[in-house]
Amino acid sequence: MSHVVADESSSQIFSLRDSAGQVLLNPDGVSIDDPVKSHDVRTDRDSLAGRDMVDTVLSVLDNRSDEEIEVEEWIIPVDEALYVRGNPVQTEGGLVMNEPEDGLFLISIRSEEELAGSAKLWATVATVAGALAALGGIALIVAGAAS
What we know:
The protein is an alpha/beta fold. It has a domain of 37 residues. The chain contains three helices and nine strands. The strands form three sheets. Strands 1-2-8-7 form a four-stranded mixed sheet, with no helix packed on it. Strand 1 and strand 2 form a beta hairpin. The longest helix is centred in the last third of the chain and has 35 residues.
């Protein structure tokens, strides 16, 4: 069994520059699609003791010393190509990309074409799964009527 003890993300506004110019991105509350894992450590509790954040995490674990701790960090690498879908708003600080009215604010390391291909694949999988479930339901009805 595992428990997420802390899940933090940065709300630091950062800039994105393309051929049209620069826009500031406010990632607060946004799920980043396909980030890069930059840090992954599995260790026992005792080897992490004495570190401020880790001490806070460990205090939540009811002082059980036999548990393994996993610390992960996911990032958007500097100079990585991004696909962003949001609502640009002009502010005193410049153009800022925020959550759009329809609520789909997306920051992705995948391209628009990769995202569309993935969506089509999952739509196909869902269609096939639905058809198989319908056939299974029909088979159960027929089997029930025959008995």
